[in-house]
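Anyone opening a protein record will find just a pair of labelled lines. The record below illustrates this layout.
***
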Amino acid sequence: MFEFAEWLGSTPLSVAIQSRLWLTPLLQTIHITMIGIVFVSMLNVALRVLGKIRADEPLAEVWNRFAPWFWGALGVMAGTGLVLAVGEPVRQATALSFWLKMSLLAIGIVSALYFDRTVARAAGAADAAPSGGARFVAVATILLWATIIFLGRSIAYDVEIWESWHLA
């Protein structure tokens, strides 16, 4: 993987990304804004499952309101993340925080699909109480996305945070 990252870092595309001093901060700003939208979207749905907000609305209605924001922001986040990874492939490939974030991101997408296919579709009335499993998934989802945010920020400090576990 490290050899591939070194090769990718020397490609004309990666060099072009690296040489535009304004591009990385711009992409990071967009990327961070998108993770905020993703987090707030899932937070609203999870808090509705827990009965903390929007208890007068059916869960399906809440999900349908926030799902387009979630999926749209996730798509933009994936695009900006890909360009950022191409711009600094060695840094990403050697950062344990990056790989943990990517693994948890896959779980986060599965949890969103869970809300989409199971919870939101099964909840009919505004007063329907979600199951204990749905409540567990809601709490786990909030913690999961908070951890993804933390790990994303930790990539810049991977060596200091993980020390001997850093992949370099």
Observations:
- The chain has a mean pLDDT of 88.
- Residues 23 and 143 are 31 Å apart (CA to CA).
